[in-house]
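User: Second chain of the day. Same drill as before.
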Amino acid sequence: MSLIFPAPPTVSAPIDGSADRFPIHRIFCVGRNYEAHAKEMGAVADREAPFYFMKGSYAYCPSDATIPYAPGTANLHHEMELVAAIGKAGFRIPAETAADHVFGYACGLDMTRRDLQFAARDKQRPWDFGKNFENGAVLSAIVPATRIGHPAKARITLSVNGQTRQDSDIDQMIHPVPALVAYLSQYYHLEPGDLIYTGTPEGVGPVKAGDRIEGSIDGVGSIGLTIGPAE
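Assistant: Same format as last time:
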């Protein structure tokens, strides 16, 4: 048997301090995981259980890239996030041992076509057009947990053209990383290579062609992105 066309290459992200790379399997994203962000979106935070949406691995974009302004939108937004990278398979994982399944952490930008997301939300439709698109999951190098541990408190910030827009702490997450991993594993067999974007604090907003985005999470790293003209 032969393939009728070449299989797509493996998508992978750099590992900080290593020549090895982290192959990306699935990208899970958590919605409304910060109370203040839920409020600024006119929504109610989900405290009983987290909710998720997904992005394909083709949405991966390395930090410090220049990307075209996303097609089909007039309201492209930034969302700065802590990302947990799964390195050990697991199913129905207890929260008490969830950290054992996390290989490391990174900074992420969940780029969002906000107008398309809101249009879908208003019609009670899935968010795919608003969230799941090429270059929509920007990621810094992954820092192994063996080096930095499992951060539960760290300042998270983002600026556009040097002006601060997001400034919070990951301890404001309603559902911390162990709870996110444990809950997700009730519905999926988590695999090495899975990424979990853990949600964004308040201060999200639009970007335009020519803008430079820079973000950081204390103890984890930094991320950058330049928005180019639309194609």
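The mean pLDDT is 97.

User: Great, on to the next one.
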